[in-house]
Specification:
Layout (H helix, E strand, L loop, with lengths): L3 H14 L3 E6 L2 E6 L7 E3 L2 H19 L10
Antiparallel strand pairs: 1-2, 2-3
């Protein structure tokens, strides 16, 4: 069972990232599964560590989605 602090952290992560990630805590391991790539599971020992991994993962995925400046997308 999660402590009240961990429950609050899990709710906070879900609130901010629920459209992009599914969150859980399994046997003390914090997990985030990207909606765009369900086979990629981010894991961490704490909510804070997972939050940082999610931020980095999200930023790297966004960078991949943006076209390179000056290039035109083919039609």
């Amino acid at each position: 069972m999660l402590s009240k602090e961990d429950q609050s952290s899990l709710l906070d992560l879900t609130w901010h990232w629920e459209s992009a990630y599914a969150f859980s805590v399994v046997e003390g391991v914090w997990q985030a599964v990207p909606a765009i790539e369900p086979s990629a599971v981010l894991t961490a020992d704490t909510a804070e560590e997972l939050r940082e991994k999610v931020r980095q993962d999200y930023a790297s995925r966004q960078a991949l989605l943006k076209p390179i400046r000056g290039e035109r997308m083919s039609t």
